[in-house]
Amino acid sequence: MSAPHQASPVAPSASPATFGINTPLLSRGTADRSEELREPERIQREWAQAKVLTLDHRGRAAVDATAGRLLTRQASELAEQPPVDGVLLGAVDGVDHWAVRGEVTDGGGLREWGALLPDADAGLLTTATALLTWHAAAGFCPLCGEPSTPTPAGWSRICPRGHHDFPRTDPAVIVLVHDGADEMVLARQPVWPAGRMSVLAGFVEAGESMEGTVVREVLEEVGLYVTDVAYLGSQPWPFPRSLMIGFEARAEPRAPLFPRDGEIEEARWYSRDEIRAVLAAEAAEPAGADSWLSTAISGKGAGPALILPGQVSIARRMVEGWAARR
Q1: What is the pTM of this model?
Q2: CA of 217: how far to CAs of 28, 177, 205, 268, in Å?
Q3: 317: left (phi over 0), alpha (psi -120 to 50) or beta
Q4: Which has the closest alpha carbon to 204: 186, 217, 220?
Q5: Is residue 293 over pLDDT 50?
Q6: What is the mean pLDDT of residues 218-225?
Q7: Which of 28, 32, 118 is nearest to 69 (CA)?
Q8: How far is Cα of residue 299 from the mean position of the Cα atoms in its chain?
Q9: In this structure, are residues 187 and 198 in contact, taking their beta carbons and an 8 Å threshold?
């Protein structure tokens, strides 16, 4: 059902956050990404000592499951010089790391391994996924339509007419709506299985501030007017090219929810005790490479289990941060 649309009575503005979040797992990259690393002469000089990560067209990389690390090859074993379609991800401990497309027989992608990899590896896989996905979709110049080719290091493309094209990032807000006390809103998209719930999200539109997007998206998706919009953190989400910008916002306690037809299958208020119970139950489960963990909440006795956002998402950090607030 949908709530009647009304214009927001005041222009949205930023407020101080009422809780903090831990660093999102895909924001932990430690590689040196300085532009100076991409100078052609330096690239050639450092290539023989570089390491190369291979991703297949499904975004999977080879992983040493025992050590919990990405598997790489020595660049000199791959080719005498950097391949045209290779991308320089950055330098880790002074060693250049590249990514190329290729066959991966046994591995996983960011959703499976992003939460389990160490900081440097998580950042490398995130950047590799973002850049290689962009190249796969950016084969023609957006200005003239001519075929384009990657420039050295893979951080841009150029067409025969000299037009440069750079990787695009689509900003999207992700919002934890709460009542200023002990309840928050979770919602489910129609394509998700029953019980899987998360916070609200939507893309920033042209000419719109992020705070304005928060107010508009929450109103559109669940019919709530929100205030006290506060920034929490951000995380790259290269599926295919988003930057998730996290906010909290306050709504009236127990205000009725009106899920938007076709976008939100269901939405409801959850208490802090309910969320804490799920988190505690999940903490007791063995760690694994699952993108979502399912645990039934206690006390209600009806309906499917509540499935909170997976560890790899910023939504998880937001839910955990709010649940930990006293």
Answers
A1: 0.90
A2: 28, 11, 10, 16
A3: alpha
A4: 217
A5: no
A6: 97
A7: 118
A8: 32
A9: yes
